[in-house]
Amino acid sequence: MTATGLSGRSVFLVEDEVMIRMMVADMLEELGYKVAAEAGDISEAMRLAQSTEFDLAILDVNVNGKVISPVADVIMAKGCPFIFATGYGSSGLPEQYRDRPALQKPFQLEALGKTIEAALRGG
């Protein structure tokens, strides 16, 4: 499965669970995307969000017990689309971002691909 017309785009991935982060990075590569940067904590995510060029971000909602909102704020200010990944459902999203796309963990390759394509196309 490849991302039609969108492959080669870069993704910034924030996930505190190392094994999940590795799995999602592998899924992204299988879909034809490249991982621009990965972060496992909020301070690293803030630094990378400000200093790295990427086309889309996938953000774990709860990173080591901290809400991802400050990182989402930086990415939104850059005008870059982002997707949340959560095990808590849409009610677990930061209130100001409940209109953003969210993937319910655990998610499958097809769901990841469709959500990324929609986000990159502005849908």
UniProtKB/TrEMBL annotation:
SUPFAM superfamilies per the UniProt record, alphabetical: CheY-like
Organism: Bradyrhizobium vignae
Protein name: Response regulator
4-aspartylphosphate: residues bearing it: D60
Keywords assigned: DNA-binding, Phosphoprotein, Two-component regulatory system
This protein's record includes keyword Membrane: no
One Pfam family matching this protein: Response_reg
Residue ranges occupied by any Response regulatory domain in the UniProt entry: 10-120
InterPro entries in UniProt: CheY-like_superfamily (IPR011006), Sig_transdc_resp-reg_receiver (IPR001789), WalR-like (IPR039420)
